[in-house]
Amino acid sequence: xxxxxxxxxxxxxxxxxxxxxxxxxxxxxxxxxxxxxxxxxxxxxxxxxxxxxxxxxxxxxxxxxxxxxxxxxxxxxxxxxxxxxxxxxxxxxxxxxxxxxxxxxxxxxxxxxxxxxxxxxxxxxxxxxxxxxxxxxxxxxxxxxxxxxxxxxxxxxxxxxxxxxxxxxxxxxxxxxxxxxxxxxxxxxxxxxxxxxxxxxxxxxxxxxxxxxxxxxxxxxxxxxxxxxxxxxxxxxxxxxxxxxxxxxxxxxxxxxxxxxxxxxxxxxxxxxxxxxxxxxxxxxxxxxxxxxxxxxxxxxxxxxxxxxxxxxxxxxxxxxxxxxxxxxxxxxxxxxxxxxxxxxxxxxxxxxxxxxxxxxxxxxxxxxxxxxxxxxxxxxxxxxxxxxxxxxxxxxxxxxxxxxxxxxxxxxxxxxxxxxxxxxxxxxxxxxxxxxxxxxxxxxxxxxxxxxxxxxxxxxxxxxxxxxxxxxxx
Length: 475
What we know:
single chain; 475 residues; alpha/beta; 43% helix
């Protein structure tokens, strides 16, 4: 009897444990099902996922900073019911992955239009470098960043890669505005506004890299400017520091014909082959422009998994040449899209415009209207841009488990109807002005056309003040 009683008690104990566990599981399941932070209902969703699904009258559910469900029937996704802290009715609207601006220098908005219609070499050496030496301070970078961040948010950009000075200040402003940034501190072989020697650049960069390690939005990077402004020693040291901290490396590569010719004469190799020879290239490198590249260069860049960024407006404005984007993609290169700096090389930060120009420029260059289609241009601004930044596991498409980075565009405008092909409509017809909402990591930065994270009026007023100072400094 005693043994029977013990077994009975054990049975009752185990049953109680099972019931308790089942109740806890059911409670947790119900809690999870009901705890959405954001639900977007009713839009056409252009996912850019591997199947390139376009979901009509869909939904997108966000918990924390991630997408937890996406599809057409929200009740099937959450059969036990759901509640959301915020619901956006996006009927008659379009949801796209947040656009990725793969190359820019955002504080240069404060020098927008300073000197246009000159060659790249003259623009840099005769105008921009002198203007920066006389005007760029940490305060300049902060206010320029605020203005640029407002402009990028308004045009649907959620992630950008940048090279400039006082990059730690830019990182702080980017974090405050809520965007995602791959932000490189510039190295260059002459005194610049924030550091006067390579040793100072290295010390600043190391401190900067340490500060931002592990941040969910800011990816601190090292940015040796180019092979024509950095010695081999500087390039090697910059790459070594970045790799010590597993940080990205940003650099301009093969941007202009002069760079290509000078490299052949000085290094006995193309810019890409020179960088390969000095063991600079790798999957942590993001190379801007990549215009003057031959088949061997493309093969190297693909094999080394170097991300490249095409900048059509900049390349056209400075007559730097046309990147062979179609050939590069065919060679297996990951090619993203960028605006370049918003002063002289491109006077805005509008990624909607860059998609349109990227497609049309390739058609003209190859004399073939089939060269780069609308879907390909959108890929470059989203999922391929993410691959170029080596961030495709986090961003670039709208899928469960990825970061909740997206833009909502209105279709209630004359240039949005009728719509026969959604990719064509996005790339060739819709404009930045159609962007009504922007979400990054589940946080709403733009809602109903109103900026929530940047004081736009203050940034614009300060920009006018700085404009006068820059103009006076060059007289």
